[in-house]
Amino acid sequence: MSQSTVSEFSQATAVTRQGDHSFTAELDAGWKVAGAINGGYLLGVAGRALRALHPSTPDPLVISTFYLGPSKEGPVDITTRTLREGRSTASYGIELSQNGAPTISAMATMGNLGELPDDVGTTATPPQLPPPEECVGVAEASEDFKKAAPLIERFDMRLDPATAGFAVGKPSGRGVLQGWIRFIDGTEPDPLSLLTFLDSFPPVMFDLGRFNWAPTMELTAHVRALPAPGWISARLSTRNIAGGMFEEDCELWDSAGRLVAQSRQLARQPRG
C-alpha cells in the first residue's frame, strides 16, 4: 500500500474535533455484524479520539468499555473528560452517543508504547499455527455469512483448520479459535488496529456449536507493544459459560513473536 494512500481503517475511524473534549465521527456500515456496528471497530474510533487529546500519549495502554446499546451506521457524538494527565500516561473517560443516547462508555489510560522499556519476561507462548496459506480463509464464507457480517471483508483473516470445523458443522467443542489477521488493503498493524483485531474474529462460541452472534457487554483491552509489520496471529478461548453469559479471552502476537495485545470480554450467550 502506498504511503500516500489513506487506509480504509484510517478513513473509517476518522474523527472531527468539535471542541476541547468533543468530537464527531461517521460510523461506516462496512464494519457491521448482525445488523450492528462491531465493538472492535468502535474501540478503534474511540482510540482515534483519545489519541488526539494529547500528543505525548498517542497509544492506548488499557481501555475498559461498557457496551450500553447497539451502534448503527451514521453520525456519532464523542465526548471525553480528563481524569489525570501525568508525565508518561494520561487517563480519560470517553462516551459515544447516537441520537442523544450513549452506546458505549469507557475509561482509558493512554501512553507512548515507543518509549516503554524493551525488557520482556513472560511464560505466554504464541499459538501454534499452520502458515496462512494452509489456513481457511474467511473470505471463502457463504454469501449469507458475508451479508450478516460485512466486517469480515475488511480483513484478510485465516483460521487454523483445527479450529475451523464449525464452518462445516463440526465444531471441536473445545471453545478455542485461532488464526491470522491483517487488513485486506495491506495496511500494517498499529496500536489502534490491535484494538479492532481483538474483537473481529467470529465469536469463540462458534467452536461450541452456538452460531448466533454474541453481543458484548464489557471488554477490557491491553495493548502491550508496538506491533511489527506483517501478519498478526490470534488465539481466542472461553472456559466458563454461566448465567447466560460467557467470557472470551483473546491474545494477539506480532510477526516478531511478541504478545502485543490482550483482551477479556463478557458477552451474552447466543441462543441455538
Automatic annotation (TrEMBL):
Chain ranges of the Acyl-CoA thioesterase-like N-terminal HotDog domain: 28-111
Domain of life: Bacteria
Domain Acyl-CoA thioesterase-like C-terminal positions: 132-267
Pfam families noted in UniProt: 4HBT_3, 4HBT_3C
Name of the protein described by the UniProt record: Thioesterase family protein
Species, as recorded: Brevibacterium permense
